[in-house]
Design brief:
Largest sheet: 6 strands, mixed
Number of helices: 3
Shape: globular
Structural class: alpha+beta
Strand order of the largest sheet: 1-2-3-6-4-5
Number of strands: 6
């Protein structure tokens, strides 16, 4: 029996186009399920390659790392305590853009430049002010540096919306 390779290539090409179309459709559907928010009270992060808040069609809402930035993105202080306070305020603003608050947060990631026990105590003061004794899950990572030279602290979060 003779085998026609041209038919195989044509069939493969049709299969490839069909797969590409399905992939493109799924990608578009995925993009439609996200709500991306950049609250006007926070700096515009798009030049840095991210969005402050990403909410999916489900219950989870993801908050990008918030740092002690003013509305222009500039770091507001060189003091650790002040940076944590402003970062927490910015986190509250980002959560608010999604209709959420600290009580909705289930996980945080905290990043501290040159971490030590003194900075840990400062952080705990601010975390307790936000959550009391009901702290969310947390991963604290000590780092050598963050995205901008003046940053000493950053916090990201995952929050959960109530079921509709």
């Amino acid at each position: 029996m003779t085998h026609d390779h041209r038919t195989d290539r044509s069939t493969e090409a049709r299969a490839d186009r069909s797969t590409e179309a399905r992939t493109d459709h799924r990608t578009e559907a995925r993009a439609d399920r996200r709500t991306l928010l950049n609250p006007s009270a926070l700096h515009d992060p798009t030049g840095y390659g991210y969005t402050h808040v990403a909410a999916a069609a489900g219950r989870q809402v993801f908050i990008a790392g918030q740092y002690a930035s003013d509305e222009t993105g500039a770091v507001v202080s060189d003091e650790f305590d002040a940076q944590v306070a402003r970062s927490m305020a910015n986190l509250r603003t980002a959560l608010g853009a999604a209709g959420l608050d600290f009580a909705d947060v289930v996980r945080i990631g905290t990043y501290i430049v040159d971490h030590d026990q003194e900075k840990l105590h400062v952080l705990l003061k601010h975390l307790r002010a936000a959550w009391g004794e009901r702290l969310p899950a947390q991963t604290l990572i000590g780092v050598a540096a963050l995205a901008l030279p003046d940053m000493l602290f950053e916090i990201d979060a995952v929050a959960v919306r109530d079921q509709a």
